From TrEMBL:
Residues 170-255, 257-346, 347-430 form the Fibronectin type-III domain. This is Fibronectin type III domain-containing protein. PROSITE patterns: FN3. InterPro entries: FN3_dom, FN3_sf, Ig-like_fold. It comes from Paenibacillus amylolyticus. Keywords: Membrane, Transmembrane, Transmembrane helix.
Length: 481
């Protein structure tokens, strides 16, 4: 051992001190190596670190001595090793060592040798090799025989972690949505891999930028021009995969306004009015602007019919309507339509009456009138029958078999509406009484009795014949037994 120590001292004393830096992007940079005995390879035995200063071997400085690797006997013998957590591809190496010979072993998942590299002693620069894939471990091996020491200064390999799911790095669902006349947004489906790093965006093969999101906004486009856009996924090793591609033609602005609305109709009430018009047939119609006395009512397009709110009683207004498309083009306004809101002093409009008969009476019904306070029911000859605040009236004690005629007038404090239509009904005794209309018990009893009596003879005849046969058969059976 004294001899070995003396040789080491003499070598260090005569070695020139030249600081050489390793590249800092290696796979071993800053890693801790393990000390191994590989004399019985493929059996590999862990060794103590002995005199190796592990951090200095991967510190990126090729002039710092990392100690010694002793070769007790046999060849090869001791080595420094690092096992990668996932497979890597190695395409370059850099070593700095002295005083012995060495080799770099690149081992696979089962410790099989994928490659053996024998670098020169003087080689301290990054040296490229044919890429070796599937590497799970690298060994810095002392290949000398006998009691020879290897003096390592730097050990580094270069390459990239292998991606286990490269088939997932495909761009699907690429589409473009215009956001203005000169801009649009690209979007695509996300690559479902934890090994994705970013996406690269290209326009006509020129790189626009890198994003981690699944969309990208593009501006300053020329209307009518066609562009090619590509999106390429990039993995954690900065490998760029095949891009998704699409052509996008910037829409030419639509400057043609839609048709002018026609058939504008106003239905006024006291404080509101309903505005409608014939539909505008443009396929890109967004809606309508309604103008009241020259002023646009809403900031955004509306759909028809549209209700004007907050109007004054008995006031004249003018309405105009313009159509607007999805490009913001607005048509000329329609011709002016004048209307006057209703007043509290407006007489009700006429109602429309329907009628249905029942035994001894009739039910009249009509739709409500907004300004009516009550409704008056008359015989067709003008005889007043009743008044009600409801929208139906029950007329009773009518003669069955006769035609009865009625009309209704809506009324308020100002006056009466015109007469409604005249309805005719013909009650019949054969009709069941309408018990839902609030008849008294006597009315129901009388009506039911009258209705039943009209069927009595037929009912008695129908029952008597089979009943007589039944009785005679029973009597006959008594005598036969």
């Amino acid at each position: 051992m004294k001899k070995i120590s003396l040789l080491t001292f003499l070598f260090l004393a005569i070695m020139p001190v030249t600081q050489i830096f390793a590249y800092g992007d290696g796979l071993l940079y800053g890693k801790t190596l393990a000390y191994k005995d590989v004399r019985n390879y493929p059996t590999i035995v862990n060794q103590s670190t002995q005199s190796v200063d592990m951090p200095k071997i991967t510190d990126g400085n090729a002039s710092t001595l990392g100690g010694t690797i002793y070769a007790p006997s046999g060849s090869p013998n001791n080595a420094l090793a690092y096992v990668f957590p996932v497979p890597v591809t190695i395409d370059a190496y850099q070593v700095a060592y002295s005083n012995s010979s060495m080799a770099i072993w690149l081992l696979g998942a089962n410790n099989e040798k994928l490659a053996v590299i024998s670098p020169p002693v003087s080689g301290s620069v990054k040296t490229s090799i044919t890429p070796v894939s599937g590497v799970r471990a690298v060994y810095f091996v002392n290949t000398t025989t006998g009691s020879t020491i290897l003096m390592p200064y730097e050990f580094e390999v270069y390459g990239a972690q292998e991606i286990p799911d490269p088939e997932k790095f495909v761009i699907n669902g690429l589409k473009a949505v215009p956001t203005s006349g000169t801009s649009m947004t690209l979007s695509w489906d996300a690559v479902q891999s934890v090994n994705l790093k970013r996406y690269q965006i290209y326009r006509d093969n020129q790189l626009l930028g890198n994003v981690t999101a699944t969309s990208y906004s593009v501006s300053s486009l020329v209307p009518g021009q066609t562009y090619n856009f590509k999106v390429a996924p990039v993995d954690v090793n900065d490998k760029v995969y095949t891009s998704g591609s699409m052509d996008y033609t910037v829409p030419v602005p639509d400057t043609t306004p839609p048709q002018v609305p026609v058939g504008v109709k106003i239905t006024p009430d006291r404080y509101t009015a309903s505005v409608t018009a014939d539909p505008v047939p443009d396929s890109d119609l967004a809606g309508y602007h309604v103008f009241l006395d020259g002023n646009r009512v809403t900031s955004q397009p509306v759909q028809l019919p549209f209700t004007l709110q907050g109007l004054k009683l008995d006031t004249e207004y003018e309405v105009e309507v313009a159509s607007i498309d999805t490009s913001g083009n607005i048509s000329a306004r329609s011709s002016k339509s004048k209307f006057r809101t209703l007043t509290l002093e407006t007489e009700p409009v006429a109602v429309s009456v329907t009628a249905s008969p029942f035994n001894g009476g009739a039910l009249l019904s009509w739709s409500p009138v907004a300004t009516a306070r009550e409704y008056k029911v008359y015989n067709s000859d003008g005889t007043f029958i009743m008044k009600t605040t409801q929208t139906s009236a029950k007329i009773t004690r009518l003669k069955n078999g006769q035609v009865h005629a009625f009309y209704v007038i809506a009324s308020n404090a100002i006056g009466d509406s015109p007469r409604s239509n005249v309805v005719e009904v013909k009650p019949e005794s054969s009709l069941a009484p309408d018990v839902s209309l609030g008849y008294k018990l006597k009315d129901v009893a009388d009506g039911t009795s009258s209705w039943f009596s009209s069927f009595w003879l037929l009912l008695a005849f129908t029952i008597s014949i089979p009943l007589s046969f039944y009785v005679s058969n029973r009597v006959k059976g008594l005598f036969e037994s």
